């Protein structure tokens, strides 16, 4: 009798089932509640608390979407470990270079940190090597850290977990140490909030989302091409939010000709994505909203040699033109990956959408379906010809969600699943295995660009404050080299507005924000820029770099560890400070770092030519 139904007992543990069955056999009407059951319920209760706090950490981290890019979204929750549990501190990373989420949460929790548990949606990753976030936990007395996902970047993955455990903290990672079904939604939240970084790390392309609005009969415009407006005002507001979360928005030439869009977030927040137009022939109007770059920059990507005269017209308006030997979505996203972009929103017509899907670059789809019917044999559809002749070939979305927005229905889903947490990124050692004719050791070149790279601290955007005297000799602490450099475009200017511009840049919340601000002010108010800027900007940069590497010993050691190597700032678009897309750049940042390195080792043999920067003691 006891073995009946043994394969599917009503309790999780066989011993409990056995004792309950014995109790009923002895005449008890209901099973006896043994102490072990309450222990189980206790564990489930704590798991439920862990899951809810982790979902909250992911929710917090999402507040910075669009601002932290190309860095991860970090959120942190600190809670007491009592049976009820209580949140005592929260924080999220606004942007790279601002106060870490972990530090914010520790400061908010104060003395309640002792013995508490910290929840972070992603493993902390201090690219600059100062371990600020980890130190905050350790010094505050946190005893346990629950991590949603490990850091997807290979050179940071697992380091924080190991460091915290070596300090005696208990570290639990979802899916590894905590495997209960209770954590499924929390783990999914952590994956989704940093999906762009996971895709970029695993696939080496930016996370690409295709967005379109269509009628019930699958049309994105009337036969005449008229398309305003298919979706409701509420749906359009959601689109503005999507733009505000993206690094760039891509449209095709036909969209520019027919719709004359602005592609701004408007109601979606302060982040302004780059606007990108793909056009093989450059058959584009000379007057268009996208050519107004006073607020938001625009890039036009085209086929090499297309309408050279029109390229000059665009350049005169401040529009950047990038040529490709053959224009296709895959090469464009590869280029945007090199520029450091994390997420791309495609708002194009059916022809370009089909090309992007066929190229395998689209990861997610947002389809707004309006309760309208327009008909028309020649009315365009959201996706053009894909070459499919049977329904069995149809692409199916996974992890589909449905949401009613006003009168419309938003259908969202992934064409490609969120990548595994162990992305396969070819290492230097694997290069020769991929192509035996290549040897990564022939040329001792170290490339650096984004702060998350192994040598990311060489970037001007690394969050290392520097302290230097102003024109009056008073020492000022700048949040980063980039803050200092951008502000000094206006130092000494005779224009009365220059001082306010300097203060705006000084107060910028992140290096990225300082860079956007300085470039925009220089572009919009060129007369405000100091008259000698072109001749002194390398001196300004060198002064800031020398200060940075002089006051941070670990940075100086990193720089000295590269002796004998060529340093190249791998920006594909900055042809002055960077090496350029095809090595055509002047690489002045790399050259200045090599000059500084030579000065540190007392060797002038590596002194780069044509640099007149004078070293100023700080």
Structural account:
This protein is an alpha/beta fold and 618 residues long. Helix content is 33%, strand content 16%. The chain has helices spanning 14-25, 35-61, 101-109, 132-140, 159-166, 184-193, 195-203, 233-244, 253-259, 308-316, 329-338, 350-358, 431-434, 481-487, 498-506, 511-524, 533-551, 553-560, 588-601, and strands spanning 75-79, 87-92, 117-122, 144-149, 170-173, 207-215, 248-252, 274-278, 298-303, 320-324, 343-346, 364-370, 398-405, 408-414, 445-448, 466-469, 475-478, 566-569. A hairpin with a 5-residue loop joins β16 and β17. It starts with 13 loop residues before the first helix and ends in a 17-residue tail after the last helix. Mean pLDDT is 82; it is low at 1-37, 421-443 and 603-618.
Note the main sheet.
9 strands, mixed
Estimate what percentage of residues fall within beta strands. Answer: 15-25%
User: Could you give the count of β-strands?
Assistant: 18
CATH architecture of the largest domain: 3-Layer(aba) Sandwich
- Low-pLDDT segments: 1-37, 421-443, 603-618
How would you describe the shape?
globular
- Structurally, the number of domains stands at 4
Contiguous helical run count = 19
Structural class: alpha/beta
> What is the average per-residue confidence, as pLDDT, rounded to a whole number?
82
CATH topology of the largest domain: Dihydrofolate Reductase, subunit A
The strand line-up of the biggest sheet is: 10-9-8-7-11-6-12-14-13
Q: What percentage of residues falls in helices of 4 or more residues? A: 25-40%
CATH structural class of the largest domain: Alpha Beta
CATH H-tier superfamily of the largest domain: Dihydrofolate Reductase, subunit A
N-C termini distance: 86 Å
Radius of gyration: 28 Å
């Amino acid at each position: 009798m006891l073995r009946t139904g043994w394969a599917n007992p009503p309790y999780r543990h066989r011993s409990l089932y056995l004792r309950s069955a014995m109790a009923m056999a002895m005449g008890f009407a209901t099973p006896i509640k043994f102490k072990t059951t309450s222990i189980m319920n206790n564990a489930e209760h704590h798991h439920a608390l862990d899951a809810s706090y982790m979902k909250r950490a992911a929710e917090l981290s999402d507040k910075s979407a669009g601002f932290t890019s190309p860095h991860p979204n970090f959120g942190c929750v600190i809670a007491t470990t009592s049976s009820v549990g209580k949140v005592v501190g929260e924080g999220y990373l606004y942007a790279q270079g601002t106060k870490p989420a972990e530090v914010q949460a520790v400061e908010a929790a104060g003395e309640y940190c002792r013995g508490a548990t910290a929840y972070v949606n992603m493993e902390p990753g201090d690219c600059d090597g100062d371990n600020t976030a980890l130190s905050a936990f350790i010094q505050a007395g946190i005893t346990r850290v629950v991590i949603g996902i490990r850091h997807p970047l290979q050179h940071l993955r697992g380091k924080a977990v190991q460091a915290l455990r070596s300090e005696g903290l208990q570290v639990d990672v979802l899916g590894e140490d905590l495997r209960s079904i209770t954590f499924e939604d929390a783990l999914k939240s952590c994956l989704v909030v940093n999906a762009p970084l996971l895709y970029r790390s695993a696939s080496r392309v930016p996370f690409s989302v295709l967005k379109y609005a269509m009628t019930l009969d699958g049309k994105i415009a009337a036969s005449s091409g008229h398309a305003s407006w298919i979706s409701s005002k509420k749906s359009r507001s959601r689109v503005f939010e999507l733009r505000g979360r993206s690094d760039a928005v891509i449209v095709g030439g036909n969209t520019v000709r027919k719709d004359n869009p602005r592609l701004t977030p408007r109601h979606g927040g302060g982040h302004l994505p780059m606007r990108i137009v793909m056009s093989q022939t450059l058959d584009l109007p000379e007057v268009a909203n996208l050519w107004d770059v006073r607020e938001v920059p625009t890039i036009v990507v085209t086929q090499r040699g297309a309408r050279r005269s029109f390229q000059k017209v665009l350049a005169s308006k401040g529009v950047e033109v990038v040529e490709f030997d053959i224009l296709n979505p895959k090469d464009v996203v590869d280029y945007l990956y090199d520029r450091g972009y994390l997420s791309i929103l495609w708002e194009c017509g059916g022809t370009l959408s089909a090309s992007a899907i066929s190229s395998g670059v689209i990861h997610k789809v947002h389809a707004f379906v309006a309760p309208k019917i327009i008909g028309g044999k020649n009315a365009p559809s959201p996706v053009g010809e894909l070459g499919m002749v049977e329904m069995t070939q149809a692409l199916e979305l996974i992890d589909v969600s449905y949401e009613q927005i006003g009168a419309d229905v938003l259908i969202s889903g992934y064409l490609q699943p969120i990548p595994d947490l162990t992305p396969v990124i070819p290492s230097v050692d694997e290069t020769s295995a991929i192509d035996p004719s290549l040897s990564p050791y022939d040329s001792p070149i170290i490339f650096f660009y984004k702060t998350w790279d192994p040598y990311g601290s060489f970037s001007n955007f690394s969050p290392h404050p520097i302290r230097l005297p102003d024109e009056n000799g008073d020492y000022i602490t700048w949040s980063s080299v980039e803050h200092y450099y951008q502000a000094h475009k206006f130092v000494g200017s005779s224009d009365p507005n220059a001082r306010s511009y300097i203060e705006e840049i000084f107060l910028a919340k992140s290096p990225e924000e300082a860079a956007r601000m300085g470039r925009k002010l220089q572009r919009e108010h060129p007369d405000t820029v100091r008259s000698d800027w072109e001749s002194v900007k390398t001196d300004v940069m060198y002064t800031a770099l020398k200060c940075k590497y002089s006051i941070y010993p670990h940075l100086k050691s990193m720089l000295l560890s590269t002796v004998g190597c060529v340093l190249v700032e791998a920006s594909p678009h900055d042809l002055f400070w960077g090496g350029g897309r095809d090595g055509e750049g002047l690489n002045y940042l790399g050259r200045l770092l090599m000059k500084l390195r030579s000065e540190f080792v007392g060797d002038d043999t590596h002194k780069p030519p044509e640099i007149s920067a004078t070293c100023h003691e700080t």
